[in-house]
Specification:
The protein is an alpha+beta fold and about 130 residues long. It has one domain (about 35-130): Alpha-Beta Plaits, CATH 3.30.70. It has 4 helices and 5 strands, in the order αβαββαββα. The chain has helices at about 1-15, 55-60, 95-100, 125-130, and strands at about 40, 65-75, 80-90, 105-110, 125. The strands form 2 sheets. Strands 2-3-5 form a 3-stranded antiparallel sheet. Strands 1-4 form a two-stranded antiparallel ribbon. The radius of gyration is 23 Å and the shape is elongated. Bound molecules: iron/sulfur cluster (2 copies). One iron/sulfur cluster binds near residues 40, 94, 95 and 96.
Amino acid sequence: MIYPLIKGLATTLKHCVSKPITLQYPEEKRQVYPRFRGHPELQVDEDGRLKCVACTLCMTVCPSRAITKITPAEGPNHEKYPAEFVIDLTRCIFCGFCQEACPKGAIALNNKYELAQYDKRVLIYDLEKLRAKA
Ligand code: SF4
Ligand code: SF4
């Protein structure tokens, strides 16, 4: 009769002192694995310039047509860059094909996972929102 009570109490005490397996989210953030695929971001070089040359390869390979607009432009030294770049994250399936296809290493999936929004228009990312932050 008393044995099951002691056994139950011992189990409870054991869990009181063991390391928790849950996180106090959102105060505590989960560390994601290195190969985690978040949303695509446009990469910049050491001078802070976009690496993208607006070739549109990523747009061509995107299976869900999430990359909705790339407008190529040309600088004074004939360097190509995107004047507009739009990714609709509500369509993105985080497959990473755009990253694989890019010949310039100009687009890469990040490790962010907090994308929930009340208004899905917020998830249509333009050039400014897609630029990777240092
Ligand atoms: S991760 Fe996949 S679905 Fe998302 S933009 Fe890149 S190619 Fe398209
Ligand atoms: S991100 Fe890469 S593949 Fe996409 S348009 Fe720019 S250079 Fe081309």
